[in-house]
Write a structure and sequence with these properties.
This protein is an alpha/beta fold. The chain has 9 helices and 11 strands. The chain has one domain: Spore Coat Polysaccharide Biosynthesis Protein SpsA, Chain A, CATH 3.90.550.
Length: about 240
């Protein structure tokens, strides 16, 4: 039996309302999205990584920078993100899609592999490591969905939410789809490692400044230990960081 083909789609855009252009903000000397891609590429179960961005002029600098770095890019609708994912799946056929978002420079490749493994072993249509804000830290989100389920969700999408949020029509209908969860040993769902605001970016830059030079492949446990050793960052911006 041939191994399942796994496509990672990294959702990205320049037009973030709270921190415009955040995906190209420098982190440890490179655009934040390239630092995240560097980490995601360490996941052993991903066969191909593609950045899914929009076809709007505002995202042209992002697409150009990624292509210069040798990253595959698919461009589609800005607002119909589900349609963009389906277009990317048509361009890069696969059996399963891993959905990631480009505001997660502390993505964990081992966690991505674990979510894929749970998904494949369970035979689920959809697997996630965060459910209703519970699970792994926000900023380490992983969703895995079969190509068949993603295409079915596209065919059934009838609301703006379903088109905007990609997997909305799947996890909102457990009666139609088999859902699986990868839960952490201890719930860390209220820990914030994503980058949506200037304070988030400052936190990530501080983590990278101390950890990346010594070990570019620093782990999530390294981040936790760093925050504990630097209590001034523990509730940076009013959110838990460890």
């Amino acid at each position: 039996m041939e191994a399942a083909l796994i496509l990672a789609l990294l959702q990205a855009r320049m037009s973030s309302s709270r921190l415009p252009g955040k995906v190209l903000k420098p982190v440890a000397g490179a655009p934040m999205i390239l630092r995240q891609i560097e980490r995601v590429r360490r996941a052993e179960r991903i066969n191909r990584l593609v950045v899914a961005t929009s076809d709007q002029p505002s995202d042209a600098p992002l697409a150009s920078r990624l292509e210069e770095a040798g990253v595959d890019v698919f461009r589609g609708s800005l607002d119909d993100v589900l349609g963009r994912f389906l277009g990317a799946l048509d361009a890069y056929p696969a059996d399963h899609v891993v959905r990631l978002t480009a505001d997660c420079p502390l993505a964990d490749p081992g966690l991505i592999d674990a979510a894929i493994a749970r998904h494949l072993a369970s035979g689920a249509d959809y697997t996630a490591n965060r459910v209703a804000s519970a699970g792994y830290p926000k900023g380490q989100d992983v969703e895995v969905i079969t190509a068949l389920a993603l295409r079915r969700a596209g065919a059934e999408a009838a609301t703006p939410e379903a088109h905007e949020h990609v997997t909305w029509g799947v996890w909102n209908h457990p009666e139609r789809y088999r859902l699986e969860r990868l839960a952490p040993p201890i719930d860390e769902g209220d820990i914030r490692w994503t980058v949506d605001r200037p304070d988030d970016l400052a936190f990530v830059r501080a983590v990278y400044a101390d950890l990346y030079p010594q070990n570019p492949a620093f782990s999530s446990d390294d981040v936790r230990a760093w925050v504990r050793a630097h209590p001034e960052w523990a509730e940076w911006g009013g959110d838990r960081r460890v």
